[in-house]
């Protein structure tokens, strides 16, 4: 009997072409909130690269609503996008495609986009006397620890907010390498996900994992975004990346996400209120260490809150954000360049506004408007210049002005440019960066 050889593409091929516009909108909204969140970091009491002279502590509860789950959600959506790519690409092709889409923006960002952030940071915190070029050549490209006296030390060059791209590339490479060795692994796990997460266990199992990570790993491995030793973040973000990958084509899970969206929202609201009470020391006196029971509850509540928020967002998005539009198509392509530029724009604009005597509302409005304008201008320039496109995660082969038409492809990808032969692009963007999120619904 002749043995049939099944390729990875056949294993991961979708049975029917559908779309997932809802996940595209989730990704767009998440990165829009990221801009507002990083502007808010100028005004709260938490550490950031630079700070405004104004303190608006009332922002902190609002930002705590987003902080636990916003990045985990993006990694989950990125995992789903990766899964849909395997409907078209072999695992080896996936590794090459993601490397070409993620590494150039990461390296370009570290060498060109991020350095002004570090320069302004040491300018404001240490009163650095040299110019930017002096800082860049003598310190930024030193490839070591700098400015430790009086501190805190800076490891330069750095990726700052682009750590997301670095982590996403590593997770994709590891997953792709495993699939090269065990090509049927994905299908087996998808079957398991359908059984485990297609019902009420959807709200329990991932939440328990997140709580476990919070209680056991975070105290030993604080978040650093430095890749090495960042084991809490790797456990959390690696898990949600794999979750996104394995549930992407598991229809029962997406039905369950919509079914349990209100329950997840209600639980998340209760957990947030109780967690806010812990932050405000409602259960033990200020100045005293938290009792062990409080620490256990806080870690458990945090992990459960993370997952319930993700379930609620995906459930409501699947219910309400399933209509396509020209705005979706534009923002799908634009969101990765916006992400690359936004934090540098925030820091430079905020730095220039210091000393002008502006009130906090006026200053924040200018920072937000200036950041959005800077991102939009950057994207409009980059998408027209062929050599710049890959440096910002855009596909190089799409000429500017090409009309977009729905692809109908069974994967989370950008609409392809209309062409007589029906051949399309892999899309661009950030959700998995460089891979936009249109596909199975």
Concise summary:
The chain is mainly α. The chain has helices at residues 8-12, 21-40, 59-66, 70-85, 91-113, 115-126, 132-138, 163-181, 185-197, 205-217, 231-247, 251-259, 261-279, 292-320, 326-353, 360-382, and strands at residues 144-146, 154-156. It has one domain (15-114, 159-392).
Describe the structure.
With 441 residues, the protein is mainly α. The protein has one domain. 59% of the residues lie in helices and 1% in strands. The protein is built from 16 helices and two strands. Helix 9 (185-197) packs across helix 11 and helix 12 packs across helix 14 (292-320). Mean pLDDT is 84; it is low at 1-8, 10-18 and 404-441.
